[in-house]
Amino acid sequence: MAEARGSEALIARLSEQDGITAEFAADLVAALDGAQPLELTRRGAGVQFVFAGRADDDEWSGAATARVLGLGRKHGVRFDLDWFPYGIIEPDLLLGRIRLAENLAGPR
Amino acid sequence: MPAALQIHPTRRCNLSCRHCYSASGPGVRDELTPGLLTAAVAGAAARGYTALAVSGGEPLLYPGLPRVLAAARLAGMTTSMVTNGLLLGTRRFRAAAPLLDAVAVSLDGTPAAHDALRGRAGAFARMRAGLGVLRRAGLPFALVLTLTQHNVDQLEWAAAFAADQGAGLLHVHPLEQSGAAAVQLPHSTPDAVELLVARAEADRLRARHPGLAIHVDAAAPAELRAPGALPDPLVVETDGTVSPVRYGFPRRYALGNLHDRPLPELLDAWDGEPLRRLVAVLPRTGIVNVADALSRLAEAAQPAASTSRSFAANSGGLPA
């Protein structure tokens, strides 16, 4: 069997540290099909998930946004999703950031 | 950035690491004479190279090390070496220490991962003991971590270890598919995703360890620089070959051999245009290990006479 990617082990560990269920993390990654998960970590009382996506593909980012919002309904949570450029990634990649605000019920 | 002369005076080593790019080991006896190297160091300094980095093999197994370091100091260069850390408690290191400005020590992850890649139980413990020697000597030191396809999740541990040990820098260098690694660790060179995650992890870990610099040898397109008038780094390999970019770079791009001509003559005769062409056709998306990407491009390129046509066919045309 092929040895696992280090990034997969990293995401799994960060998810576990932050009390995020593996199911939610897996659903997020699936919803962002084509993106690369970078970080899933607690920010204050909230949770932040950062990923890299394709900035040159509006269709993809729109569809991913819809899937992520649908994921919120499935798990019974609301969260903010925004896209922002990130200095080290260019020109065709950007970062997405999902923030689960502290006054919202996060997946626990 | 100082222009760096990187020398590999010996391939002799007290370890046979699975990921060694130069396939060094205890049974290898190749080495350059101190006289040849001191002349090269003086010649490089005269041409503007300001930093000498000694690698190997294990530099502390090279009897001429103090002499070469002294020549660099005399020429006004800063000096450093990359070591596996096992011999830092020896007389050989005590002889070299006053001639060194900094030391880089190899680290391959957690103790178990380190010993596995090094092929020797206890290698991590001895390396860690060596770090104590560096602290007591007051020598600044870095830890050099080899990034593979499988270990970016160990950066967090490595940064904490480096900070705890008093390192000033954690240098993350992607595995190169050459030497022993090409045979023993196929398919382990980190791809663009792992390089990207390593950069993001480094950002996160810098915030956690503000006193520790963390550098990842992975560049975004905007960070690529065209090669200058002289190769930087300039690499002297153990067989005397003088190469740009890195140890083992395809020979067609080499400047020549120290056994044939002195270093200043090789520099005078160097045509940097083929290397500039390679840089020009590097992928313009994603994150790359520049040295590795250039090596692969160079290996794939056709012989010099048809180089331009080949690149034009493969890349949609060369930049003007």
Automatic annotation (TrEMBL), chain A:
Q: Which domain of life is it from?
A: Bacteria
The protein's name in its UniProt record = Uncharacterized protein
What is the scientific name of the source organism?
Spirilliplanes yamanashiensis
TrEMBL record, chain B:
User: What's a Gene Ontology MF term here?
Assistant: 4 iron, 4 sulfur cluster binding
Supply the CDD domains for this chain: Radical_SAM, SPASM
Which Gene3D superfamilies does the record cross-reference, listed alphabetically? Aldolase class I
Q: Where are the transmembrane segments?
A: none
Q: Which Pfam families match?
A: Radical_SAM
Give start and end of each Radical SAM core domain. Answer: 1-215
| Signal peptide (UniProt feature, chain positions) | none
Q: Which UniProt keywords apply?
A: Iron, Iron-sulfur, Metal-binding, S-adenosyl-L-methionine
Write down what this protein is called.
Radical SAM core domain-containing protein
Q: Could you tell me which species this protein originates from?
A: Spirilliplanes yamanashiensis
